[in-house]
Amino acid sequence: MQATVKWVDGAQFLAESGSGHSVVMDGPPDLGGRNTGVRPMEMLLMGLGGCASFDVMSILQKSRQAVTGCRTELSAERADAVPAVFTKIHLKFIVEGRNLKDAQVKRAVELSAEKYCSASIMLEAAGVEIAHSYEVQEA
User: E strands within 22-65?
Assistant: First the structure.
């Protein structure tokens, strides 16, 4: 896997993935940015959410659950001192569908957290406390 991050100006950077997709990262005005893109740490948090959501949806689809929607809400706490690393992250999966089995959703979240989500497992190994929860909603 490869990526390139190019400085544009101020605190703005253009990141390009090895697969050819680009995203703008920027800082707030008080740190020299123009607020034209996500913050780098927000990008990391969103990447974690994407990784875990991909796993959960894949597992639910393989178990033939009739999922019509999945939203993952993430909240994070960071250290007060520099480096302001993540100390705690909570992922809440809101899964909507028809006649979803609670046990299947629970198992999908557990498998993502314990076995498949590389981002989550990597952050936990670095000392971040990560918690997962879920809610099942009927479509």
Answer: 22-25
Distances (CA, A) of 60 to 20, 83, 126, 132: 29, 37, 28, 16
Contact (Cβ atoms closer than 8 angstroms) between residue 57 and residue 44: no
In contact, 86 and 115? CB cutoff 8 Å = no
What is the model's pTM? Answer: 0.94
Q: Coil, helix or strand for 103?
A: helix
Confidence of residue 69 (pLDDT cuts 50, 70, 90): very high
pLDDT tens string 4-20:
999 999 999 999 999 99
Looking at the structure, give the CATH architecture of the domain made up of residues 1-38.
Single Sheet (2.20)
The topology under which CATH files domain 40-138 is: GMP Synthetase; Chain A, domain 3 (3.30.300)
